[in-house]
Amino acid sequence: MTEMQANPSFRLVYVPGVTPGKWVRVWQERLPDVPLSLVAVAVEEGARTLVADEADAGLVRLPVDRDSLSAIPLYTESTVVVFPKDHWLAAAEEVPVADLAEEVVFHPLDDTLGWEDLPGRPAIERPATTADAIELVAAGVGVLLVPQSLARLHHRRDLTFRPVPDAPQSQVALAWQLDRTTDLIEEFIGIVRGRTVNSSRGRGQTAPAADQSKQKPGAAGGRPRAGSGKAAAGGKAGAGKAGAGGRSGGGKSGGGKPGAGRAGAGKAGAARKGRPRRSS
């Protein structure tokens, strides 16, 4: 793993049909100081862009050259057949490959499915791109099999699609140069794999210090236990009562209530200070 750059940035290449938005948003939340720039390229340009060091990592379609690129498969897409809305295939919920035997099936040069034996009847020539093939489908010339994301990307109101369960499928992967697994790439790997901030293998973040106010009662630096507080209060109360008892002890010589002795003495003093009683 290489060290962080002084002023790092991250370049992410992606191919048609791939939507990196959700991962980019997580990146911006976790690494706001590291700008992430997106580079959109054609399907066949994804791997070449990485090998040419024009991007740090890429969301590309497999296969790629494993002698020069590392790749982590992320997901596999369903394959669909695209056709006009008034086509007879629209009556089906899904279309087996065998049902396309009599249809003209376009095979664009940027095909992502890697057909060994393309079903149906071949077109006079291969369209240069998937977008070109979509135009021919809209003209009612034939049909097209593509990953579902590409069918949605090239959506038209006059076209629809159905799943083809037994067709080849396209797999999307995160790829980067074989000998350049940097800290930032590790961060992005963690994001696409759904790791939390604390489990990230990249720069990561230091866990926040424990809030001392939330420590258990009696823990070092925490609040005193309620029991010890009561004990202290009880001690003070006991001392107060003991003192009162001591004072009242002297007044209890006459068997009165605590403090009565002092009260009696006060009254006696008042009697002595009053006028003498006249003798009868």
Identify the overall geometry: elongated
**Whole-number average pLDDT?**
80
Spatial order of the strands in the main sheet? 2-1-3-10-4
Q: What oligomeric state best describes the polypeptide chains here?
A: single chain
Largest sheet: 5 strands, mixed
Helix content: 25-40%
Q: What's the number of extended β-strand segments? A: 10
Strand content: 15-25%
Secondary-structure element string = EHEHEEEEEHEHEEHHH
The chain-level structural class is alpha/beta
Q: Which blocks of ≥5 consecutive residues have pLDDT under 50?
A: 204-274
Description:
The chain has helices at 21-30, 46-51, 130-138, 148-153, 183-192, 226-251, 260-273, and strands at 10-14, 36-40, 57-61, 69-77, 79-84, 104-106, 121-122, 143-147, 159-163, 170-177. The chain has 280 residues and is α/β, with parallel strands linked by helices. The strands form 2 sheets. Strands 2-1-3-10-4 form a 5-stranded mixed beta sheet. A 5-stranded mixed beta sheet has the order 7-6-8-5-9. β1 (10-14), α1 and β2 (36-40) form a beta-alpha-beta unit. Mean pLDDT is 80; it is low at 204-274.
